[in-house]
Amino acid sequence: MTQTSIKLPSLYDCDSYLWLEEAIARLKVKDFQRLDLVHLIDELEILTGRDRGEIESRLGVLLAHLLKRLYVDRADDYRGWEITIREQRRHLKIALQQSPSLKRFFNAAFDRAWQDALTEVREDYPQFIFPDLWQFSQDINILLTTKFWS
């Protein structure tokens, strides 16, 4: 008779939140021997990816609404676009204050976010002409503060 080994699902596989709580507790008491390093590394990589994704996503929304506000002649929509611009700027500022090192990713994400924003507004407003290149500074502080349409 052969013996079969049955692998039971780990806590990580069953309840990742509880697994994370236990990992934190083990770190606090320096119980490194029982720490699940493989999954801990995975989780940390997921967190960094999520932060970068949020920056790029919010930057794309910001650029799309800036493009609308700057190039779409529909005064009835200006207020809504401006509210979205302020909201995205606020969230980007918060994320960058919490993790200033994300500023270097902000610069790298600009081109992708710009292309996404440009594609979106061109599809939504084919009757309007949008520039192929961002016409203003890409400096993070300027993007997060300047009212380009004044």
Oligomer: single chain
Distance between the termini: 82 Å
The string of secondary-structure elements, in order, is: HHHHHH
Tell me the overall shape. Answer: elongated
Please characterize this protein's 3D structure:
The chain has helices spanning 11-14, 16-28, 37-71, 75-98, 103-124, 140-143. The protein is elongated. Helix 3 packs antiparallel against helix 4 (75-98) and helix 3 (37-71) crosses helix 5 (103-124). By secondary structure, the protein is mainly alpha-helical. Helices cover 68% and strands 0% of the residues. It has a domain at 51-143.
Summarize the structure.
The protein is an all-alpha fold and 150 residues long. It has 6 helices and no strands.
Characteristic key phrases:
150 residues; mainly alpha; elongated
What does the secondary structure layout of this molecule look like, with pairings?
Layout: H1 11-14, H2 16-28, H3 37-71, H4 75-98, H5 103-124, H6 140-143
Helix pairs in contact: 3-4, 3-5
